[in-house]
Amino acid sequence: MNTYTVFCQSHTGDGTIWISAVKASDVEDAKIIGRANCADDWEYANVSRVVVLGVAEGDVNILFWEDQE
């Protein structure tokens, strides 16, 4: 298993970006796990409400993030 940092957002493009590290066998698996974890954290009943914006290798240390319009 490898560590990946997954970036997700609501399918509407509204709201903040979910960022979290996951353990997965590859990038595709990381996308599936990250999407499911995000949906769970945001209490979405359906993972289709979540889109994966990106995947980074490793547990990325975000030093600053600004997602306000």
CATH class: Alpha Beta
- Largest sheet properties: 3 strands, antiparallel
Count of runs of 4 or more consecutive helical residues? 1
How many domains is the backbone divided into? 1
Second-tier CATH architecture: Roll
| pLDDT averaged residue by residue | 93
Oligomer: single chain
Helix content: 10-25%
Structural class by SSE content: alpha+beta
Q: State the total count of DSSP E strands.
A: 3
What's the N-to-C terminus distance? 37 Å
- N-to-C SSE string, H for helix and E for strand: EEHE
At CATH level 3, the topology is Ubiquitin-like (UB roll)
Shape: globular
Runs in which pLDDT lies below 50 for 5 or more consecutive residues are none
The portion of residues forming beta strands comes to 25-35%
For the biggest β-sheet, the strand order reads: 2-1-3
- What Rg is obtained from the alpha carbons, in whole angstroms? 12 Å
Concise account of the structure shown:
The chain is 22% helix and 35% strand. With 69 residues, it is of the alpha+beta class. The chain has a single domain (2-57), classed as Roll (Ubiquitin-like (UB roll)), CATH 3.10.20.
